[in-house]
Design brief:
4-stranded mixed sheet; D-Maltodextrin-Binding Protein, domain 2; 5-stranded mixed sheet; alpha/beta; 18 helices; 2 domains; 42% helix
Length: 428
């Protein structure tokens, strides 16, 4: 018999669902970004097919990170499925906080983009499945750059980016040259700021894992960031993260936005063009690498059902389900996870950003180097980083708002990071 889910979505499922003998609940903590919100509607058919009730807890990303980390670390059991990313997945997997993921052959794990699979694994074991993946890139209003007589190029210099922002900046008519993250958080303002620092030749830590926030590269990068956003950004930028800037962009108020490639799925302004992230002479680390992924906390009594849901929600069949959904379509499918998505002509036609997004993902460089002796682009893959990053984030927001000078903010950030790393035992 043709299943109810097949009827609802018009597809043949490659992932098998085991219907529950009685109704079961799964509580899922998700970030409040567009693709996750869309999933709640698409997954109504999953409940109809399986009898599994899905209870969604949708949180702003900073709040999500705090709550999920606290609950998972203590074994609180509040959630059956959690949204985490590349910073947490390998570390939590190694610590036994989350369950290893084992899916059937039809899931086709080899279709997963290598950057996403590797970033969510520890010693070859996958601990979180990517719902969508991303790098970062420039998204800009080509109508405004053309009118201003400026050009934004792939891997442009920061000086040219500032010049383009200045040329487009027209606050009297509600247009700001550059909209960039300023809201404090290790995954908020520090995600963008770290790529700027990387491109200026800086790093979070040296080979002995001593913080380097008092370096010349950090000073130059932060002064540039504060100057760029202070002169050509919207007022109150220290309160803006992804969703706030997305709203500004779609209101026609941003000349350019350098942020997650996934944002391109939700841009509604005509004439958007894309370019690879700028740099100041060191392109390695100028664009980040991330995935919002789904994991099962260790010891969950509903682990089997949770695993089945994740297998469906991150499958090729789910991509097709979004494409076929009457409210969404190919332009709204989660991207950055599977090679097969980019092979669909329908997706290529609907997603003008696809080539730029893939180029950014493939060029991201999370591996440790002599300059950056740790894994991660916009984060460091060590357990202490969320605490370090959050402390530094507050200081950078203070510099952006003018509450502190850049020099004072960096000095305070260095002291805070040094104290955390010493207490963790990296050095005396």
């Amino acid at each position: 018999m043709k299943s109810l889910l097949n009827s609802a979505l018009g597809l043949t499922l490659g992932v098998a669902f085991a219907s529950s003998a009685s109704a079961q609940d799964l509580t899922i903590a998700i970030v409040n970004n567009g693709h996750m919100i869309n999933m709640q509607k698409v997954a109504e058919a999953y409940t109809a097919e399986t009898g599994v009730n899905l209870n969604w807890v949708s949180l702003e990303e900073g709040v999500l990170r705090e709550q999920v980390t606290s609950d998972t670390a203590t074994g609180g059991g509040q959630y059956d499925i959690i949204n985490i990313g590349m910073q947490e997945a390998p570390i939590w997997g190694a610590a036994g906080w989350i369950e290893p993921l084992n899916f059937g052959a039809e899931y086709d794990v080899d279709d997963m983009l290598p950057a996403m699979r590797n970033g969510l694994s520890h010693e070859g074991t996958l601990y979180a499945a990517p719902f969508y993946g991303e790098s970062s890139m420039v998204m800009y209003r080509k109508d405004l750059t053309d009118a201003a007589g400026v050009v934004v190029r792939d891997n442009d210099s920061w000086a040219n980016i500032k010049g383009a922002a200045a040329a487009m900046h027209d606050p009297d008519n509600g247009v700001y040259g550059a909209c960039l993250r300023g809201k404090p958080g290790w995954g908020d303002n520090m995600a963008f700021i770290t790529t700027v620092v990387n491109s200026f030749g800086g790093a979070w830590f040296d080979a002995e894992m001593r913080p380097q926030l008092n370096s010349a590269a950090w000073n130059e990068a932060i002064n540039f960031y504060v100057d760029l956003l202070g002169n050509y950004g919207p007022p109150g930028s220290e309160g803006n993260s992804f969703n706030e800037i997305l709203a500004l962009y779609n209101e026609g108020k941003c000349g350019m936005w350098i942020d997650a490639t996934i944002a391109a799925s939700f841009l509604e302004v005509d004439g958007v063009a894309y370019a690879q992230s700028p740099n100041a002479g060191n392109p390695v680390g100028a664009n980040w690498l991330w995935a919002w992924a789904m994991a099962v906390p260790a010891g969950s009594p509903n682990a089997d059902e949770a695993m089945k849901f994740i297998e469906w929600a991150t499958s090729k069949e789910y991509i097709k389900a979004v494409a076929d959904h009457p409210e969404f379509g190919w332009g709204s499918v989660p991207t950055g996870t599977r090679a097969s998505t980019y092979a669909y002509p329908e997706f290529q036609a609907a997603a003008g950003f696809a080539a730029a997004e893939m180029a950014a993902i493939e060029s991201a460089a999370p591996e440790a180097t002599d300059l950056k002796p740790y894994v991660g682009v916009q984060f460091a893959a060590i357990p202490e980083f969320p605490e370090v990053g959050s402390a530094v984030a507050q200081e950078m927001a203070a510099a952006l708002s003018g509450a502190k000078s850049v020099e004072d903010a960096l000095a305070a950030a260095q002291d805070a990071a040094d104290a955390i790393m010493k207490e963790a035992g990296y050095y005396e």
